[in-house]
């Protein structure tokens, strides 16, 4: 999720700025130092962190305004990345042009979607927000067909797009005229998921291959997003007169874990097992978000929600599928200017 991604995602932990930089790095150098913890365990931890992020947003908004939740999330997430930057002695990027692009990326990938999800969960359950987040690959597929010339449509991917949006209609109960559904909150959650691929495409066009490290770029992006929310939040909210402990802890966890630690986990996964495997975390997030919302928050669940979610995930999986490997003679004859799959930034929820 840049909840992030992700979630997010959300999400958003590993920002597309970082993804673009990581995907461009040689695989050999990325695998020089193998972490002690198996990547499957880290994959599971990342899925849990991003899956529970929607529950944490819901709990946070019980005590604080949505903008305050988002600002707190960014402050604690940025603090984690800043600490790692200090330990590794990495500097923030330089150049006015780079920071200008980072300002746009921070808005599209952090400030806007984080705020929209927080406002959406004032009126919709966390389970629905998590499922709406899973539509991000579908939006990304639709946009990439227009904005990225190398992402050519195939029958399978177009079919996946159609199946995915049919799943969205199933979740929303379209055959019942969207009865009992808060259209405003749902629209904000869907708009948040749309913001991620727009940001990915922007980053891919402006910052990919910039020469800066992924950690440096992502730290700068989160710093800018924090500054954006620090300017906006006082305009629409007042300083809290009291600080409820449980919602405050939820905001701290949302930032430190769902934004800071999740970025580091996702970056390491992309470096170790590649973007294709790492992006599979997208398909676990709505399942965990739904289970958490029902089990912990006691949110109601109709049959259309899990069924529609499975249809959405099936469609998203098809949109991410790649053509089968062609014969050796065809591969050798391919122009050298073609973009290899490894150079494409992974998509997160």
Your description of this structure?
With 349 residues, the chain is an all-alpha fold. The chain has helices spanning 16-24, 27-30, 39-60, 66-88, 96-120, 126-133, 136-147, 155-172, 183-206, 214-236, 245-273, 275-278, 285-297, 304-319, 328-332. α3 (39-60) packs across α6 and α3 crosses α13 (285-297). Mean pLDDT is 80; it is low at 2-32 and 327-349.
Key descriptive features of the protein:
0% strand; 349 residues; globular; 67% helix; mainly alpha; disordered N terminus; disordered C terminus
Strand tally? 0
Mean pLDDT: 80
Termini gap: 4 Å
Proportion of residues in β-strands: under 5%
The main pleated sheet reads as: none
Please write the string of helix (H) and strand (E) elements. HHHHHHHHHHHHHHH
Rg over C-alpha atoms, rounded to the nearest angstrom: 19 Å
SS summary, helix count: 15
Low-confidence stretches: 2-32, 327-349
Quickly give the structural class: mainly alpha
| Approximate helicity band | 55-70%
> Which of globular, elongated, flat, extended, rod-shaped describes the shape?
globular
Topology:
Layout: H1 16-24, H2 27-30, H3 39-60, H4 66-88, H5 96-120, H6 126-133, H7 136-147, H8 155-172, H9 183-206, H10 214-236, H11 245-273, H12 275-278, H13 285-297, H14 304-319, H15 328-332
Helix pairs in contact: 1-10, 3-6, 3-11, 3-13, 4-5, 4-10, 4-11, 5-9, 5-10, 6-9, 6-13, 7-8, 7-9, 7-14, 8-14
């Amino acid at each position: 999720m840049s909840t992030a991604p992700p979630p997010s995602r959300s999400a958003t932990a590993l920002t597309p700025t970082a993804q673009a930089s990581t995907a461009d790095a040689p695989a050999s150098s990325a695998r020089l130092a193998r972490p002690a913890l198996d990547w499957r365990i880290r994959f599971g931890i990342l899925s849990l962190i991003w899956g529970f992020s929607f529950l944490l947003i819901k709990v946070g908004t019980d005590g604080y305004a949505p903008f305050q939740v988002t600002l707190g999330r960014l402050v604690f997430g940025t603090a984690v990345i800043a600490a790692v930057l200090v330990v590794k002695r990495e500097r923030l990027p330089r150049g006015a042009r780079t920071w200008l692009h980072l300002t746009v990326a921070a808005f599209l990938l952090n400030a806007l979607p984080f705020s929209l999800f927080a406002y959406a969960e004032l009126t919709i359950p966390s389970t629905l927000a998590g499922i709406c987040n899973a539509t991000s690959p579908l939006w990304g597929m639709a946009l990439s067909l227009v904005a990225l010339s190398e992402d050519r449509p195939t029958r399978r991917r177009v079919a996946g797009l159609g199946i995915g949006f049919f799943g969205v209609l199933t979740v929303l109960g379209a055959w019942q005229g969207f009865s009992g559904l808060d259209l405003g909150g749902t629209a904000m959650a869907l708009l948040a998921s749309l913001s991620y691929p727009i940001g990915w495409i922007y980053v891919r066009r402006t910052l990919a291959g910039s020469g800066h490290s992924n950690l440096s770029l992502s730290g700068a992006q989160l710093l800018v997003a924090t500054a954006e929310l620090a300017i906006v939040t006082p305009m629409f909210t007042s300083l809290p007169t009291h600080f409820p402990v449980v919602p405050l802890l939820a905001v701290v966890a949302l930032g430190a874990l769902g934004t800071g630690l999740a970025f580091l986990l996702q970056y390491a996964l992309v470096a170790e097992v590649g973007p294709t495997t790492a992006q599979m975390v997208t398909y676990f997030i709505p399942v965990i978000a739904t289970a958490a919302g029902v089990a912990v928050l006691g949110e109601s669940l109709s049959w259309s929600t899990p069924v529609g979610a499975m249809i959405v995930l099936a469609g998203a999986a098809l949109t991410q599928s790649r053509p089968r490997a062609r014969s050796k003679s065809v591969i050798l004859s391919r122009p050298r200017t073609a973009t290899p799959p490894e150079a494409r930034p992974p998509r997160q929820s």
